[in-house]
Every structure is written in C-alpha cells, then in structure tokens.
Amino acid sequence: MSRVIKTSFLVMLCLTVLVSCDLINIDSEGVEQAASSQESTSDSSPLGNILSPDKLEQIVGNPESNQSDSADVGTSTVMKKMSAQDAQLLSSDGYMDGTDLGRTNSSNTVGLLNVEDLLWNFDAEAEITSTPIKTSNDSGILFGDISGTFYSLNIDTGETNWEFQANGPISTTAAIAGNVVVFGSRDQNLYVLDTESGELLWKFNAGGWIESSPVISEGIIYFGSYDGNLYALDILDGSIEWQYDAESVIAAAPSIGDAIIYFISDEGILWALDIYTGRAKWNFKMYKDSPVLSEVVTETSAPIVLFDTVYASGLDGIVYAIDGRTGQQQWVYKSETLLSLNLSGAEGLVFLVELAGSVTSLDALTGEKLWELSEYSAYNDPAFICGDQVYFGTTDGTIHTVGARLGEKNWEFKVLSGINTYPSVYDGVLYVGSSDGHVYALKGALGDANPLQQ
Fold first, then answer.
1. Fewer Cβ neighbours under 10 Å: the N or C end of the chain?
2. Is residue 336 helix, strand or coil?
C-alpha cells in the first residue's frame, strides 16, 4: 500500500513539474481519479493483505533473504577435480535413503519385528527435517539440519565423524553415489562432499532455495529449485547437462521411471521430461486454480513411480494415477483434506499420509481404498515401507508401525520429541530425526525377508 502511495505521489509530482513548464496540459481531476483507482485496487482484496509478502515471510521465510551473489547464479565452483577412477565409481545410480529412483520410499531390506533398545542418540541442537542415510561402506550416517549443518556420524556409536556448515537451512534428504554425498540448502547451493572426509568437492549456485531432494542416475544429479528450474548436473564437476524452466517453484523432489524424470511444480503441474535431453514429453494439470494455502504451504509431495505408473498429489487432497508414458489419467482418489498427501508405494499398494493424522492404503491398480487409520497426529511426510510394515512418525514423538496389507497395528516406540520426517532402516537398526534436533538409532529384532518385494 505504501509503495502504491509513494508511486502515485512521484507521478503527481512529475506531472506538476511538467504542467508548470507547459510541457503537457492535463486535467488535474483525471490525475486524482487515477491515483484513487490505484489505491482502491490495492485494497480490494482482504486475502491479499492476509497473504501479503511481509506476512508470508514470517510464515515460510523469504527466498530472497539469503541469496548468494547473483553473478554466481547458475554456475559451479569446483574445489577439487575428480579422477578417472572417481568417474567410474560415480557413473552408476546413486541412492537416496535405501529406496529406489522412483522414490517409492519402499526398501527391499529386512524389516524389524520390534525395537529392543536405544542404540544411541545424537543431539544436533537444531530441527531435523531430512531422513538420515548411511554411506555405501557403512562408515557413517549422514543428514542435515535447519541450522545449515551437515553431519556424518559413526554408524555404531553416534559420535561425530565430521560436519560441514552451509549458509542456510538444509531440509533436503541427501543422495549418495560412490564416495560422494549430494544435498541442497536454502542458501541456493547444491553441495557435493566426500563422504569420508566431509571435504567440499564442488557446489552449484541455483537461482533460488533448494528444498527438492536430489536424485542421481548414471552420473547425473537431478533436482529442482525455487527459481523454477529442474537441473541436470554432471556429478564430477557440476556442469549443466540441461535445465528445464517450469516457470514455477519446484520444492518437491523429482523421481525417475523408464528414461523419464517426473516432478511437480508449485502450480500443481506434473511434468514428464526426457531424462537425457530435458525435453518435455507431457504435463498434467492436477487442479485448475491454485488453492489459497498454496501460497503458504508450498511443498507438494514428490511423485512416486511404480512400474509404468506415476502417482501424484497436489494441494487439494486428490491422488492421481497417471500413465508414465502418455500422461493419461488412469484413476483418481479424493480424500477429505485440502492439503497435499505424501505418497509411498510397494508392489500393488500406495500409501497416503496427511497432516491431520490419517494413514490410508490404496490399491495401486484401481485406486480403491483398502484401509484407513485416522487416530494419529501424523506429520505431512511420507511413510516408509520396510518388510511387510509401514513406518511413520507423529507429532507426539512416536514411531508407529502397521501391517502393509491390512493396516493392523504392530509395534511403536516413543522418543523425546515430534518426528517430522520418515525413518530409514539398515541392518536391524532404525534411524530417525526429530523436531528437537535428536537423531535416534533404535536396535530391533530382524523380521523375515520383505514379502512385498518377492
């Protein structure tokens, strides 16, 4: 409003000078009417005041408040050149958190029959919103926190191996390939570190926050940014293979199917790009008009890929099953929430977790609801499927497990504070971060091999 008034004042001042110099002749009443029109337009929408830039900054932060030097945007800074041996190691697929490139959050590792004891817990003293993952040689557990610190902890003791300080909060779950770990930050940088030493190998400055967790395939890192671009970078030096401008914030992580990469923009559009060229193959609009809350709750769920079908949810509580090759809708499921549903999947099953506390299972082929549990205070984060169990954390600090097929309750374990990310399970140990900054390593009895993956 003040900006409009200042602008109107300057316009009127300039006009007054020009009129006094007889350079133009204009009716003063017209000027007053124009200024009045500008003011009334700016005040016409109460919702515009509620969701004003100043108020939104208080809720979600200002994406421009910690931007790096604009001259560096879109460029990589290499600290250490990698060898040919490194190139061979990094040419294979990476992994995010023990799951697959389709981001199904379903692990083929053995699940836990129960939790017997707390193995260790580490206090990072800052909220953790990313899933802890382990290195390929089991030397460390890696994660970042909202203070911008990225940690490597000893997998057996929880003691610090090393830590690295970014210039902004880290909410992305890291990806690992060979001996490097990749993650993004709200300081606009994508970082690539050596997993053993924590040494910075290179960083890439995007044009906006990076809250899209990266995915690695065939030596290329894919991630989205608040600048509206999906980037494909060479893992060796950060050089741009291609980038695609979706003209809207990309906060959710991308997923990969058969030579196609999928992602959702903040406008509620599911995009499918050729993974090698970055050319758009198709897009699917999940809702016609952005819901009011989309200006506040910017993160949508990452799409998941099961076989040739992509499952996606927008900020309207609807889940879509889309043919991954053609972009044609196969089925749609409408929940009772207006927020996005976070998705996970195993063979034949899709699991939904919503902010209000319900966990739902759908038939992946038909969209039919199989079971629903609604008594939880679940965070809006996807579930993790391991063995024949679904794992998820809630705001009261409880890790719950239910049967994947029937939804029957199995075991649960209470920690000190709320869980706002999904856990990971490796070799009989469950790792999870909490809102009070603790990472817990919980030792359990191993179950049978994963029947959902057989």
1. C
2. coil
Q: What is the DSSP string of 261-276?
A: EEEE-TTSEEEEEETT
In angstroms, the Cα distances linking 310 to 20, 144, 280, 321 are: 66, 29, 16, 6
**C-alpha–C-alpha distance, residues 429 and 115, integer Å:** 9
Is 361 strand, coil or helix? strand
The rounded distance, in Å, linking the Cα atoms of 304 and 333 is 15
Measured distance CA(180)–CA(197) in Å, rounded: 10
Scan for tokens 């952005």, then name that residue.
290
162-187: burial string, b at 16+ Cβ within 10 Å, e else = bebebebbbbbbbbbbbbbbbbbbbb
- Give me the residues paired with residue 323 across strands: 309
- Residue 215: the pLDDT is 94
The DSSP secondary structure of 66-116, one letter per residue, reads T---GGGTTEEEESSPPPHHHHHHHTS--BSSSS-TT---EE-S--EEEEE
Q: Which residues of 205-240 are buried (b: 16+ CB within 10 A; e: fewer)?
A: bbbbbbbbbbbbbebbbbbbbbbbbbbbbbbbbbee
Q: Tell me the longest C-alpha to C-alpha distance in the chain.
A: 91
The total of other beta-carbon atoms located within 10 Å of residue 288's CB is 7
pTM of this structure: 0.81
Tokens, residue 205: 């400055």
275's tokens? 């993974």
- 348 against 96, higher pLDDT: 348
Q: Are 216 and 93 in contact (CB under 8 A)?
A: yes
Hey, what are 212's tokens?
Answer: 């899209």
E strand or H helix at 23: none
Q: Are 105 and 422 in contact (CB under 8 A)?
A: yes
- Calpha distance 10→33 (Å, rounded): 15
Residue 112, beta-bridge partner list: 446
- Segment 220-277, tens digit of pLDDT: 999 999 999 999 999 999 999 999 999 999 999 999 999 999 999 988 899 999 999 9
Please give the full DSSP string across 394-450, using - where no structure is assigned: BTTSEEEEEETTT--EEEEEE-SS---S--EEETTEEEEE-TTSEEEEEEEEE--S-
